[in-house]
Amino acid sequence: MNTPVKTKQPFMPNAAMLDAAEAVLKAMAILGTVRPIVEAYQTEILAKGQWKVMAECREPGARDEIITEPKLSFLMSDSDFAVYHQRCDEARKAAGLSITLEGGCPLLEAEELLRVAQRAMVDSMADVTQITANKAVTLPLEQYREFVDLTLRLLVPFIDHAGVTRHLSPRTESGAIVQSGVRAEL
User: Fold this and answer.
1) Checking CA distances to 147, which of 23, 46, 105, 154 falls within 20 to 30 Å?
2) Interior CA angle at 115 toward 113 and 120, to 5°?
C-alpha cells in the first residue's frame, strides 16, 4: 500500500507576524537612539549633583557614597531625587525627547515599548512555535532573549526594509523574490 509522503511547506509568515517584527525593529531603533542621549544627561546631572546614597541604604559604618550611575538613583533621598528628576526633565526637554506620561522617562518608555513589541511578536508566532508570550517569559532570562532573537531573525528576511512591500513569497538562491510567478531582483 502506498502511503502519501507528507512534505513540509516552507515557512510563510502572515501580515500580523510581519507587523509585529517590524514593531520590534522600530522599538529597537527608538531605544538605540534614546538610550545614549538619556544616559548622557543623567550621568552628567549625577556628576554635577554629587548626591549621596541615603543613610538607610548604607551598610552600618560605611562611608558616604556618591551616586554616579543612573540605575542607582533610587538610592537617593526623596528630596535629592526630586531635584535630580526635575533636572532630568529639563534636560529631556532640551534634548527634544517626548514622553507619553507626565513625569516619565523617555528611556524607560522606550524600554517598555520594546518589551511590549517583543511580547506581541512572540504571541503572533504562537501558532508556529506553540509558545505564547506568557509562557516565554517564564523561561530563564537568557533563554527568553534567545527565543525572541531567533523569532525576530526568522521573520526579518520576509520584511521589506523600505517598509513599503512585504515579501510573502520565498526567495530564490540568487535573492530574487518570487511572487505570483513574477521574479523581482533585489
Assistant:
1) 105
2) 95
